[in-house]
Amino acid sequence: MRISHAPQATAVAPPEWVSxxxxxDEIAAPEGSSRYRVDLVHFAPGARTxxxxxxxxxxxxxxxxxxxxxxxxxxxxxxxxxxxVRIAPDEWHWHGASPTTFMTHLAIEEVAEDGSEAERGSQVxxxxxxxxxxxx
Length: 136
Ligand code: MN
Fold this sequence. Notes:
136 residues; 12 strands; single chain
């Protein structure tokens, strides 16, 4: 057993992964034959991931605030605290805060057998981001 007592140091999200300000608290990382990863990710208003995909998909659980999630070819959807999102393997998508609110989610995924975790694509442009349901 290993207890990590709060408060724990938070890490700035890598800029190649997120546009805007976001922080990551690592909850669990692959070790030994275990391949799951769990992160608590905090997005400042307007911050969002780049387009990306996960080899075995991902589950998000919004724990605080309001945000957006979009899969390629679909509309952006509002997500709020208590909502969970299942993203299918290899489905291109992004997730982040709304333009005016913070959003925190748990991100749960499995690393592929070959160790690969995710593939990054392009940034979510302002046009894509503001096409979402918050802007009319
Ligand atoms: Mn994702």
